Amino acid sequence: MAEALKNIIAQSLECPVCLNTFTNPKTLSCSHNYCKACLDNLLECHGNDQMLRCPVCRAETQVLNQDVSKLPTNLALKSLIEDVKNQYHLCSICKSEDKPQAVVYCQDCGKYLCITCNNTHSLWQDFISHEVLAMSEIESGKVSVRRYRKCKKHPKKDEECFCSDCRRFACFRCVVMEHKDDGHRVIEAAVYESSHLKSIEDLKSKADKKRSCFQKYVDFIDDQKERVSNVQKQCTDDINKAYAESVRQLKEKKEILILEVKGRTEGVEKELDEMKKSAQEHITHLTTIADVLTNRTKVPLDMDALAAHDTLCQDLQEALKQEDPDYKQPLQSSKKGKSITFKRNVRTDELTLGKIVNAIAKNIALPNRKDNIHSMVSTPDSRMAVGRSTGGVEIFSADGQFQQTVFKDVNILGVGFLSDDRYVILDGSNNITLYTLEYTKLNVMFETLSHGEGGISNLTVDDDDQIYVSYMQAQKIQVFSPAGGQAVRVIPCDGYVPLQITNYNDNLIIASADTIRLIDKQGVVKYESTNVGFFPIAAVSQWNTILIAIVKHGVGLVSINEYTNELNHVQNLVIDYKIEKPELLWYYLHQYRSGEIALCTPDILYIFH
């Protein structure tokens, strides 16, 4: 009876997970106990989850910050385990009341044996193959004792059977009394144990294979990481080398550019210095003669004095005959110097700082086109299309050569191109029409606002073939797809009038009376600048920066500056270039793909090289 009780107590002290005696037992909210290490392993299996599911009843327990040590410790169970560990094991065979201490434990007999009984046990022929464990190894934890299950209802009976439906071990009497009904599948405990162990071994084998599979995957990832790391190191080394080389080249280029500027300007300065020297010599000559004459206090009487006086007077008269200075000559020389400018290279794919250039413009008069230019856009084949409100689109090359006129009978307010090179035409009635490359009109209708509803309109096309039409009076922008029909969306222009719109990457450039705005395609203003000037005209450069032209009305001077996508000033491209008819406000700005900048007034096209 005592031995059976010991077995029952021993089973109660086993962790359901590791099947060993509890170590630092922790209690879940469902009151089930587990080793702390076992709970750590279970929690780790759930990743970052802070909920721990009980393996017995599947109830959930929250583990704050995944710290199992914060769960309550079962102090009573821990104390009982310590007591059992400290209790000496006595021989199970000896019959005397004063039983000696056991020195070994036979796994097959399930008995503790003293020295005498162990010697007798080892001589029995049938017991030679039994597994015998030394108590010192058991107490040190090096080996585990195999427990023999005793029935809780019949402590003298071993649990020799296992009911697969009830999932419990039972003795033969319990099987007859409780597991004899249909549906109870009862097998020998040894058979179940063998099957269970085989199943566990199969699962472990599969787990080993799966673990090996994932380990190969982890090794593969490590290999890829190492390759990427090697690429990073190699690229970093290459970048550092390229940087050092680039710095060297930039320094050389800087010196060359400075010398070039010096060479160009020194020639002009030398011309101006020679003019200045000549003028100063004339001033000195006049001053000297005049001083000699005016400083005389007596009238010359003798012949020599009279002769000298007459000579000086003649010299002064000759000097006075020289024409007044001509300002055109120094102005012409200075014009050569002032036309010299530094064009910074803002392209990200080139190293050079830039180049020294002279801003030269070619003026192309548009005969019989007085005050009727209302649009300009670069063509897909790198030319410039200029639209006339009285009808027609004129095409010009980058060198200013007129090439052809198309859509002669259409009043043009806006021109754009789709990605397949189809024309998008906005006419004077705010209607949009699509044309093929062969100028054939397509039967696609767009529900735009009439001139009375929207006022004067403007047009641009983005890289996704979305068509944008702005209205000054309605203060909004309609967005259409090339399929036509109703606008797919409307962009409100809150608080400003959209005079001109230009597509810019995923944004729009809006030019108003005194402000340039960069808005996204939902209408949110990202950047704006009121420091660019009155009635600015915007365009996109071939380097994907922003060009802004300002005309000084009344004096007829135009300046063109370059800005970043955040509307920060980069450089001056054209400074105070003289144009005709500066009182008109409708101007258009674009850049050829070859680099020339085109500025169109209502009747003149200026091309800056």
UniProtKB/TrEMBL annotation:
SMART domains: RING
PROSITE patterns hit by this protein: ZF_BBOX, ZF_RING_1, ZF_RING_2
Keywords associated with the record: Metal-binding, Phosphoprotein, Zinc, Zinc-finger
GO molecular function ontology, one term from the record: zinc ion binding
Residue ranges of every copy of the RING-type domain listed in the record: 15-58
B box-type domain sequence ranges: 93-135, 146-189
InterPro entries: 6-blade_b-propeller_TolB-like, TRIM45/56/19-like, Znf-RING_euk, Znf_B-box, Znf_RING, Znf_RING/FYVE/PHD, Znf_RING_CS
GO cellular component: nucleoplasm
UniProt protein name: Uncharacterized protein
Originating organism: Strongylocentrotus purpuratus (Purple sea urchin)
